[in-house]
Structures are given as structure tokens and as C-alpha cells.
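[User] At your convenience, examine this fold.
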Amino acid sequence: MCEAKEDLDKICETLDKLTLDALFLVQEEIDLKLNVENAMSGGEAHLAKTRYIIGQNNVSALQLPTENSAEFSSVIKVEGSESLLGANTYTLREIKKSEDETVQEPLRWFGFLVPQNLNFAQKMFRQALQWSVQAVNTQNQLQRVLHSISSLKEVKSNLTA
């Protein structure tokens, strides 16, 4: 009977720690999503300033590639990996021109001498992408913690029954 009591105490203690971890992960995810929102709105503001500086016809959908354009690769790719425990994690990898000849710098779609605001917008959008990947990783980690909590609750209910 004493051993069952010790097991129950360990399970309760672990549940308490996992619940705190879950709360911290929820807070971290909220912070990351707020950072993404702020970076996106800042990038959009810099894009609007660029349109004002060089004209709305010079920064528009007309400069973007269409389906008839030559094939190209992205500058940054999101890569996923799976750990031994089945946990997915994602990272960003920058593609160099030497690795893939079809890589194009998106700023060059708008000319060679672009305003500084367009560079700022690109940096803010890249930062938003990094925070988005971190938010996905945090969300995956939170799901694993919640799964562990539900499993331990099941074990606890079996012990108390």
C-alpha cells in the first residue's frame, strides 16, 4: 500500500511539473505569435513607404513572377526533421546561389537600386518567418506535453481505482 502511495505522489508531482511546463509553453507561443504579428505589420508599413517613395506602379504585383516566368527557387527553405521519439522540429535554411543556380534575390524583382525601406521590409518578413517556425516548434512541444499529461492522468486514475 505504501508503494502505491509513493507512485501516486510521483505521478502527481510529475503532473504538476508538466502542467507548469504547458503554461510556460502557452505563454511562449502567445509571445511568438505577437512578435510575428508585429513584424508583419512593420514589414507592411515599410512596403507602403517604398510604394510611396518610388511610386505605386514600381512596387506592385506587376513585378512579381507569374506562371510564365522562368523557374526559380526560394532563398530560404523550411526543413523538418523527426527525432527518435517521433517529435517534429523545423528549421530555416538559407540557400546560397552557389548551391542552386535558380535562386533569385526577391529584391531584384523591383530593380537594382531599391530604397532602404524595401530592405527593412524584407528583414522584417524574414524575422516573422523565423518566429513562425519557432511558434510551430513550440506548439509541437506543447502537444507532446499535453499528451504526456493525459497519459499520466490515465495512469493516476487506474492507480486510484
In short: The chain has one domain: 2-54+73-102+115-160. Residues 2-54 form the longest helix (53 residues).
